[in-house]
Amino acid sequence: MASVRYMSATRVFSKGTPPAVDALDLDVHDGEFMVLVGPSGSGKTTALRMLAGLEPIDSGHVEIGDRDVTQVPPKDRDIAMVFQNYALYPQKTVAENMGFALKMQRVPRADRDRRVREAARLLDLDEQLLDRKPRQLSGGQRQRVAMGRAIVREPKVFLMDEPLSNLDAKLRVQTRSQIAELQRRLGITTVYVTHDQVEAMTMGHRVAVLNQGQLQQCATPRELYENPVNQFVAGFIGSPAMNLRTVQLTDGGVQLAGKVLPLPATVRTAAGAAGLTELVIGMRPEHLHVTDGSGELTGSGELTGEVILVEELGADALLHVRLPEGGTPVVARTEGRKPPAPGREVTLHVQPDEVFAFHPVTGARLAGQA
Amino acid sequence: MTVLPVVRPEPRRVPRWVGSVGWAVVAWVVALAFFLPVLWMVITAFKPESAAETWPPKFIFTPTLAEFRLAVTGMSPFLIHSVLATAGSTILVLLLAVPAAYALSVYPVRRWRDGLFFFISTKMLPIVAAIGPLYVIALHTHLLDSIGLMIILYTAMNLPLAIWMIRSFMLEVPGELLEAARLDGAGRLREIGSVILPIIMPGLVSTALICVIFAWNELFLALNLTVTNAATMPMFLMSSVPQEGLYIAHLAAAATVASIPVILVGWMAQRSLVRGLSMGAIK
């Protein structure tokens, strides 16, 4: 077991292009489950491969367990990786696949067999499967064999590169919790790459959000949700995504849908200090509450618009509401039982302290944490 | 018992089977056109010499093994030379082509394109243009009419093709797999031996087979650079044409015998051959 540390680690694929990973500084604690998340091209996979030693590091350092491994070849880093397409050796049996690394380390056969069997049991892999070839297995079984190959090595760090992306939706949710549970049991430091923010939020002890090669924020899932440091993180974390709009600043708040949406004093002060006339506000769908006009909520902002689409999710429904001023519809989450029909006019209420405000140019959060 | 209503599909104007039968006919016609000369050769081999040269060809005759008996006599030295030259060169080709292909595909060396082009460019020169220098070199190195020379030449002849073929098979091996092997602690040799080779084995077999066929059938170099000590099967066929008299049945028998090893090897490697040759085609 070990901690992992990126110190200004940079990877440039070709001269003249922006770095794929730009001066990444990240500490992963001993035994922690760290998720790297971001859209494609954000550098998350490159960052993982730098840790694996599959991608050279152009400047900066990478440490595993306080040892600088920047120049150490992959096999000597004491890590194990689960690949997106599993990368099982097609000509070897499941047992041979799982034991290959141990064979390379010249672990005696009896010892090897024991550890392979242990790992198989840990993963609920049937013993009969051990003599099969990978192509005779289902997708879910292959995924578990790939996990098993990593576990057998008893490495200091697990690296996982979108290991669930080839599974169907149901199996993915199931395997997601199994991996998280397994990691907690083994207590091995894990760096996990995904583009799926739900996976990131549910699995990670902490989540590092990357965009265009730069670390945006690294925090616990709850902290990311409640206190995103910028517009990118706010828009990326949370499902459905936060409603973001550029609006004009007025007295006491901002101008939206023909009305004044009140903002907390701290935000107004920050916006004033920055000399802004407009800013970007963000409202999460679950913070927009539908009312029929009766039972006014005091002190809250009010948006009125026409429902153009209802997405039924069972427990909830998502309303797409077009505001009078046009633009992309606002999405509100509402109770699933009796959602307003499309075409109806609804009023959405939002509490001022649940409205996020961002700098329109830099995207930085205004007034920071409340 | 309930009777399920029979749902009839929309009638097509041209039934589906017409198309498949049509293509089957085309395939058979083409296959027969290629096979006919071979069939003629085999049939003629069983004829007595007197019946071989009649026109129109006779299809009813008493088969005889006389020509085979005649053809086989004196064949064994040629056969041995051919087996040695073919097997020796094919093994050497594979030993050289695998590392060369690896260096040109998996971890490409600098200027690998130039290397790749150089290999294939050696096949562009007509072999006739090189035979003079080859003869002189062979003469001065005392290699004329030796199996060793034929092994070297057939290796040189087949190596470019083998490198190109094996390289394309190696490119098919997923990169993730090689990275997994590196993480698992496999060195270069291990990586080739226990990861790459098992995967490209069908391709390797078909490459070997093509090398065998080319070396076995090669005549020009053998004709010009060997006399007796290293003369190969195609030379034997040449020599079975007598100066005078009838020889068609005799030649057909000798040619049939000479074809048997290649056909046999091809038939044994059929499955790998099809898989290997189509490896790049299906992705």
- The CATH top-level class label of the largest domain in chain A: Alpha Beta
Low-confidence stretches of chain B: none
Q: So, CATH architecture of the largest domain in chain A?
A: 3-Layer(aba) Sandwich
Helix content of chain B: over 70%
Structural class of chain A: alpha+beta
Q: Please identify the top-level CATH class of the largest domain in chain B.
A: Mainly Alpha
How many separate helices of chain A? 9
Greatest interface and its participating residue counts:
A-B, 23 and 17 residues
Give the averaged pLDDT of chain A, no decimals. 91
Determine the fraction of residues in helical runs of chain A and give it as a percent range: 25-40%
Shape verdict of chain A: elongated
Number of strands of chain B: 0
CATH superfamily of the largest domain in chain A: P-loop containing nucleotide triphosphate hydrolases
The unreliable regions of chain A are none
What would you give as the CATH superfamily of the largest domain in chain B?
Answer: MetI-like
- What is the CA-atom radius of gyration of chain B, in angstroms? 25 Å
Keywords:
heterodimer; A: 370 residues; Rossmann fold; OB fold (Dihydrolipoamide Acetyltransferase, E2P); five-stranded antiparallel beta sheet; 9 helices; B: 283 residues; mainly alpha; MetI-like fold
